Amino acid sequence: MVEFRMPSLGADMEAGTLVEWLVKPGDHVKHGDIVAVVETQKGAIEIEIFMNGEVRQLLVGVDKKVPVGTPLAIVRTADEIKAGVVAPVVLAGPTIQPQVTPTIIQPLVSGPAPTLPLRSAEPPSGARRIRISPAARHLAQKRGVDLAAIRGTGPDDTIIYADVERSLVGVAAPAERKHAVGIDLDAMRNAIAAAMARSKREIPHYYLEHHIDVTKTEEWLARTNAVRPPENRLLISSLATKAVALAARRFPAFNGFYRNGKYEPANVIHVGVAIAIRGGGLAAPAIHDTDMLSLDQLMLQMRELVQRVRAGRIRSSEIADPTITVSSLGERGVDALYGVIYPPQVAIVGFGKIVKRPWAIDASVIPRSVITITLSADHRVSDGHAGALFLAEIGKLLQEPDQL
Amino acid sequence: MSDLDILAVIHEELGKIAPEIDLAAVSPSADLREALDIDSMDFLNFITGIHQRLGINIPELDYPKLLTLKGAVTYLEAKRKLHEA
């Protein structure tokens, strides 16, 4: 039997609140399955499990806040099942009854909450019986949502946590409407504030910038996309992210963590991609093994990630372990951005927008498409000389898109 | 399919990207990137949604024609007529 524990979702996380179990004892799980939702400073995070087996017991109940490392569930591993290991001796300590079976309650007709118009087309009805998960009910009570007006999307039309969250967009006051479902922007702002203040307090940043002629890269991209349907098209940001990942292979001083007074280079390359949250806010979840992905795979993952993060559905493994970050402000942004390193990482690479510039080639000046790449790096780990080589390597790779 | 249906599909696809925006209040000639605060990834998702819903493939070179609600309706209507002809 193995304990499944509250994961650490970043250096600044000490505890998390379990808001929903997505499995119950007896359920079979496999590597990568999402088993629970945990509320942290960064918002509601979907927690994945990284083993195959069967859930035996849930140890922590819904709405309990527990420290990182606390056992959440007992799992019988696939090997144990194969070997015929039987159920464990009952462990000491409280056992939580699984609460995934929907309970039937009367709708909340009058609550302390404002009765602002809801988005659902269905009118509230006082008599209808409602199926709702415990986490959803708790959230609805906390926020004063009228359950009768929510359409459940769970089994047997059960209202689940996400359904209540969706309805909150409709009931929020106008001033706080403009944010994605499932993300608490105030908590996210606090998390950004804590991480960035720590970064500027502890990390001696140095900054470099480099201008790259990407006219040929743009032409290659236009040729490539011309024969592709929209769903298979590439964006320059996927090329940029891949170039950083490949360069990080050759320059390990920019890919890793500075912890407990020393630098630990990472042996994998998980590029964190900075994604703006509508209404303000930022997340930089990791794309795992970025350097091993083809451009098409990487683009697909970036598209999926952007949509998921903006909908407030970040997975635990993505938030916990980026080894380097890329920030790209896009076509409506500015010429250059100097990032603040996300601790305990040691580097962040910034891409400005592509602009037409007069560019000298041999004896003539001609208009070319130019992008400004910047590097903010940790001076405890590397020096400007190495940083310059790293940045130059990214620029070189970006100019040979068919090699990416 | 009428102009109105095309506009409804446009509204639905943009609604997926910017759910908090009241599209009825967006001027037909406003730049969607500004009005909705969307980036190139959002715009590509919009174009992809249109392709999947209406079966109209929009080449990159035509993107500028779809930067306003009015422009998008005009463009898609013309494309659809071309298909039928």
Describe the structure.
- Chain A has 404 residues and is α+β, with helices and mostly antiparallel strands.
- Helices cover 27% and strands 27% of the residues of chain A.
- In chain A, the strands form six sheets. In chain A, strands 11, 14, 17, 19, 20, 21 and 22 form a seven-stranded mixed β-sheet that branches. Chain A has a five-stranded mixed β-sheet with strand order 7-2-4-5-18.
- With 85 residues, chain B is mainly α.
- Chain B is 60% helix and 0% strand.
- Chain B contains four helices and no strands.
- Chain B starts with a helix and ends with a helix.
- Chain A binds chain B through residues 169, 177-181, 222, 225-226, 229-231, 233, 235, 237, 276, 278-279, 302-303, 306-307, 330-332, and chain B through 18-20, 33-34, 37, 39-42, 44-45, 47-48, 50-52, 57-61.
Mean pLDDT of chain A: 82
Predict the CATH topology of chain B. Answer: Non-ribosomal Peptide Synthetase Peptidyl Carrier Protein, Chain A
- DSSP summary, beta strand count of chain B: 0
CATH superfamily of the largest domain in chain A: Chloramphenicol acetyltransferase-like domain
| N- to C-terminal distance of chain B | 14 Å
What oligomeric state best describes the polypeptide chains here? heterodimer
- The fraction of residues assigned to DSSP E strands of chain A is 25-35%
CATH architecture of chain B: Orthogonal Bundle
The count of DSSP E runs of length 2 or more, i.e. the number of strands of chain A, is 22
For the largest beta-sheet of chain A, the strand count, sense and barrel status come to:
7 strands, mixed
Given the helix and strand composition of chain A, which structural class is it? alpha+beta
User: Looking at CATH, which topology of the largest domain in chain A would you report?
Assistant: Chloramphenicol Acetyltransferase
The SS-based structural class of chain B is mainly alpha
